[in-house]
Structures are given as structure tokens and as C-alpha cells.
Amino acid sequence: MTPEPESQPESQPEPRRRPDPPRYESPVDKAIREAMERGEFDDLPGAGKPLTNLGDPNDALWWVRGLVEREQLDFSGALPPAVALRKEAATFPHSLLDLRSETSVREVLEDYNRRVRRDRLRPPEPGMPQLLAPTVDVDDLVAQWQALRAEHDRAAQDRAAQERAGADAEARGRESRSTHTPSRWWHRLRRRT
User: Fold this and answer.
1) Residue 33: inside a domain, yes or no?
2) Cα–Cα separations (whole angstroms), residue 100 to 7, 105, 106, 145
């Protein structure tokens, strides 16, 4: 008996693979890839070093504080009312310099005191101590405003006088230049002939 050749398994043709569809690459991704291929990101300062300014690992809002500082954001609207009132009081009387009359200054200060009294009637947050903003002495701040306003007006008058003096000097200089007209070369030629 002759041994039968071992039957080889029939080779099945490999299924045809579809070519991968072309991958979309945004213009930004393309620019970054090309810059990496050119080596523009090699040897950057700080490469291989740990990142700095990651904040306190125990502070959950370190990134918010960093964002506020970096972008110079104003979160005064998010302050508790008593803290906002205290910050407002700290700007008196300098913030009142734009006001022209004593009555308008008194109205602003009395409105501030009214808002402080209203805030004191609000119940405190549970588990938090109640923050109180102080009322202001209207008469004292009006006197401070009057002194600041007088100083501000004197400085404005001095600046205006200096500007007028500079403008007058410039006008006199222009006038002196305009009265003396240099003779032109063709006038001199005509006189010679």
C-alpha cells in the first residue's frame, strides 16, 4: 500500500481588503504635523522639564484663580453683598470726584448707607458668620470730597493755563514766521536783471 499524500487544506483566497478611506486632516493638524516634521518643536525652552504654575494640589480651584489672574477678570459681582459694599466704601471719596454737586454726593452716600442697612436685615448663610459692612459718615465724606474736588479743579485749571500758554507761544511763533517771508530765488533773479 502506498501512503496517501497528506491532504493539504485548501487555501482559501484572502478576502479583499478595502483600502482605508483617506483620513481628513484639518488645516491646523496639517500645520502642526508639518512643523513637527521640519523640527520646529525641537529644543523648545522647558522641554523635558515639569510644568510649573500648576497651583496648589490641595486647592480644587487653582485653575480658576490662575485664569482670573491671567485674564484680569473682575468677579466683583460674585462677591457676597457685604464684601461688595465694603469694597465700594473703600473707594470713597475718590470715586465721587466725577460728581459735580454736593447734593449728588450726599445722595450717593445716603444710598450706600440705605443698602448697608438693607443688607444687615438679610439672614446670614447657614453655617457662616454674618458679614457686616459699615455705614459711612456722610458729612465727613462730603468734606473730604470738597477738599479733593478743590484740589482737582486747581490742577485742571493749571493744566488749562499751561495749554493756553503753549498755544499762545505757538501762535506767536507762527505769526512771526508768517510776517517775515523769505524772498524766493526767482524774486532775487528779477531784481538783479
Assistant:
1) no
2) 110, 8, 11, 10
